[in-house]
Amino acid sequence: MKTYVGKPVYHGIAIGQIRILKKEKQNVHRSHIDDVEQELARMENAVEEAKEQLKGLYDKALLEVGESGAAIFEVHQMMLEDQDYQESIQNMIKTQQINAEYAVAVTADNFANMFAMMDDDYMKERAADVRDISERLISILTSAQSEEVNADEPTIVVADDLSPSETVQMDKSKVNSFVTRYGSANSHTAILARTMNVPAIIGLEYDEEIDGKRAIVDGFKGELIVEPDEAVLAEYEEKAAQEAAKKQLLLELKGKETVTLGGRQIRLYANIGGISDLQSVMQNDAAGIGLFRSEFLYLEKDHYPTEEEQFQVYRSVAETMAGKKVIIRTLDIGADKQIDYFNLDKEENPAMGYRAIRICLKQIDIFKTQLRALYRASAYGNIGIMFPMIISLKEVKQIKEIVEEVKAELTEQGASYGEVELGIMIETPAAVMVSEDLAKEVDFFSIGTNDLTQYTLAIDRQNAKLDDIYDSHHPAVLKMIQMTIENGHKGGAWVGICGELGADLTLTDTFVEMGIDELSVSPSCVLPIRKKIREHS
Ligand code: PEP
Ligand code: MG
């Protein structure tokens, strides 16, 4: 028996057989071809086949993890069709009379090196994507089988790293957990893992010889126990059974109120990235949506989404939620979420740079388009709008003026809209410090603990090296939360939490005691929190 320790990203117990996924470099040999036309046709067929595969993966991901997780496959389809990439391969085949798979491999190296050398972190990541699509093409051209998890017994997938696309591709009927050597606990990939409800550990240094061995994943402690002895196995089988029983119990909480033993109601909402997350919201019985990260709508497209495109999405979410609250956050891009067509300058400090509401207040046409779509959709349900990265009263006043302009324009044009609650995210220490004044201007606050931790502790949430000191339980962060709740109430605003900390069961009692009005969490965390609140005396 040997125990490896990493960082837990999602709780749960899994017992199964380890399968190490290796990204082996495909061995491609150069060979001379006589018939160039035939080789170009072979290449064209491979591209068509790759497109089909990517479309299939997109559809699968859309069903399983929603639009935000599926978007990666659209990016891959676009990269596959990129003219420079295609021309490089075709030219090599024509001028050097070489086989297609070799031309793909060389082009992949050239493009990946070019991306890797760029300063921009987002562009650097494209190196992995170009390799990904090239490997797909080579597999098709050489008829190689891609590594799939095809085991009959439950499998623990272990890998150096798993991209969002690989995580999505896992067949969850076979894979019961995953463990990686790299990755950051606060990246959007980790958030995706939590949405998928798979016990997961990152940052775990493992030996290759564990492949094929029986093991336990303890997603609470972040432990991978390989070849457990009988006593340990029995202990964990018992724990896994308890977990399953808990899941059953939680199912029984569906339809129940989220109310403390003392009779205090807490609104328990869910966080979503798009329409396809709604199924999970329903299954887990959230009372509303406390954070719709609308930027995914922009990330999925290669152009600014039009007012009509946005309206259709917001309307559909509002209608599906049938009168339950739907809080949509306006565009929050910049920092780790970059979009090509915004043409943002490269910055030294993107997390503290031109992002979120700062972009909206400078590029007002983009902001107004979104606000018009949101207000029009408000005629179809119970929409709330909140604004990210606020630091000052001045910003809030400016936002409210723009909102009034939008409403006046809509009225003039005869478009109808409903009552909309306006709120702001409290995710900067500045906003906390002036929260009493801010509260007088808005209907609600939603505390973004992911960024609030980042800015309070001055720790980049994307930096895996700092995961051990990125501590959302730091007294400074908890005091900020307490202060926000008190000041919010003093100024007449209700206060919720929509950052990851809102789902931390060890703090639920604390938040209730602090006077929190609402918690918005990943759909899979809704019922455990309801249980905890119902036990609060
Ligand atoms: C947060 O910062 O806590 C938050 C909810 O927003 P995001 O994670 O999208 O930055
Ligand atoms: Mg944030």
Describe this structure in a few short sentences.
With 537 residues, the protein is α/β, with parallel strands linked by helices.
The average pLDDT value, as a whole number, equals 90
Walk across the major sheet and give the strand order. 1-8-7-3-4-5-6-2
Q: Helical amount among residues, as a percent range?
A: 40-55%
Q: How many strand segments? A: 16
As for the CATH topology of the largest domain, it is TIM Barrel
Outline the secondary-structure elements.
Elements: E1 2-5, E2 7-10, E3 13-21, H1 36-65, H2 67-80, H3 83-96, H4 100-116, H5 121-141, E4 155-159, H6 164-169, E5 175-180, H7 188-196, E6 200-202, E7 214-218, E8 223-226, H8 230-252, E9 267-272, H9 278-283, E10 289-293, H10 295-299, H11 307-320, E11 325-329, H12 357-362, H13 364-377, E12 382-387, H14 393-412, E13 421-426, H15 429-433, H16 435-439, E14 444-447, H17 449-457, H18 475-491, E15 494-497, H19 508-514, E16 518-521, H20 526-534
Parallel strand pairs: 3-4, 4-5, 5-6, 9-10, 9-16, 10-11, 11-12, 12-13, 13-14, 14-15, 15-16
Antiparallel strand pairs: 1-8, 2-6, 3-7, 7-8
